[in-house]
């Protein structure tokens, strides 16, 4: 660290010495000598961009024309690399429920919008019923007329959220029930249907 400080100090002293010698040894420019002596030479005409460029410079312009092959590759792409041509999709299917088109492996967006609206209605009903209080019991969402299907002992110890409309036909009751199957105790996988 001491070496770098000494180097910086040495460079600063050299620059100061150079500045002082340049300041005191400065000579007057020749124009000032003419001014002291009498007549000034005529000043040159100011230069314009047109005088500098003239007719000989073209900046940022291609010097060679692109070939038709390169132009077509830029426009439509290359079939082996990036292909820009619109190719018809072969992965479209028609929904069995609503009849709208959708891609294979993707849920039908029209049917899924119904699920989204139903889910938001359920969430709003749960929020209005339970608020922000912590829930330790199981929550059961019931539609109109479903509470009478079970005896009152069945609903004991459960938080019931009722929605005043009939259950949609596509919304099964099994979606809200917990599984009755016990988890497996072994990790062995037994193959089936090996006939």
UniProtKB/TrEMBL annotation:
Claim: Mitochondrion is one of the keywords in the record: yes
* Keywords of this entry: Mitochondrion, Ribonucleoprotein, Ribosomal protein, Transit peptide
Q: Which GO terms describe its molecular function?
A: structural constituent of ribosome
Highest taxon of source: Eukaryota
Q: Where is the composition biased (Low complexity)?
A: 177-187
The region called Disordered is annotated at: 174-195
Give GO cellular component annotations, separated by semicolons.
mitochondrial large ribosomal subunit
Q: Where in the cell is it found?
A: Mitochondrion
An example Gene Ontology biological process: translation
**Keyword flag Kinase:** no
Q: What does this protein do?
A: Component of the mitochondrial large ribosomal subunit (mt-LSU). The mitochondrial ribosome (mitoribosome) is a large ribonucleoprotein complex responsible for the synthesis of proteins inside mitochondria.
Query: What protein family does this chain belong to?
Result: Belongs to the bacterial ribosomal protein bL32 family.
What protein does this entry describe? Large ribosomal subunit protein bL32m
Q: Look up and give the organism this protein is from.
A: Aquatica leii
